[in-house]
């Protein structure tokens, strides 16, 4: 999957003098094993403190281990089943399915797995950051006692380019 997280279509935004709309969610972008609808952020509608979009994890897909630095995330699972492995060394596990809300505190390492080999996971994602992915760092599963750092292995999985 190509990492094209910065594929923003400004022409998709309709400005109705204070209410902005993107019909159909905008262009698809890819990052860290997940497909995203363009959604809204500082990059296209000028938000100051939040961003939101629709994320799709393909069948059998994984959003590799990472940490959200200084921002919160709330997800609502629209369809599918997902497993989060989280915490130091990613030793804790929680499973969620369609209809569940998930809150991820800043700084919590986590890796996300689509539990199905045939069906996608689709979720609404809201962040308390207008920058979307700019404050996300990879997390090395095998280094639970060290502070999170960007390793060569994690960089190759996630393809962070900022």
Description:
The chain has one helix at residues 152-158, and strands at residues 13-15, 20-22, 28-31, 34-37, 51-57, 62-68, 73-79, 81-86, 92-97, 101-104, 110-114, 121-127, 136-138. It has a single domain (10-158), classed as Jelly Rolls (Sandwich), CATH 2.60.120.10. β1 and β2 form a beta hairpin. It has a 6-stranded antiparallel β-sheet with strand order 3-4-5-12-7-10, with no helix packed on it. It is built from 1 helix and 13 strands; from the N terminus they run βββββββββββββα. It is globular, with a radius of gyration of 16 Å.
List keywords for this structure.
six-stranded antiparallel beta sheet; 162 residues; five-stranded antiparallel beta sheet; Jelly Rolls; disordered C terminus; globular; mainly beta
Q: Find the CATH topology.
A: Jelly Rolls
Q: What is the average per-residue confidence, as pLDDT, rounded to a whole number?
A: 84
Query: What order do the strands of the largest sheet run in, or round the barrel if closed?
Result: 3-4-5-12-7-10
User: For the record, what is the CATH homologous superfamily label?
Assistant: Jelly Rolls
**Total domain count:** 1
Shape: globular
Low-confidence stretches: 144-162
**Assembly annotation:** single chain
The beta-strand count equals 13
> Termini distance?
18 Å
| DSSP helical segment count | 1
**Residues in helices, as a percent range:** under 10%
Structural class: mainly beta
In angstroms, what is the radius of gyration?
16 Å
Instruction: List the helices and strands in order.
Output: EEEEEEEEEEEEEH
CATH class: Mainly Beta
CATH architecture, by name, is Sandwich
Major sheet: size, sense and barrel closure?
6 strands, antiparallel
Give the amount of beta strand, in percent.
Answer: 35-45%
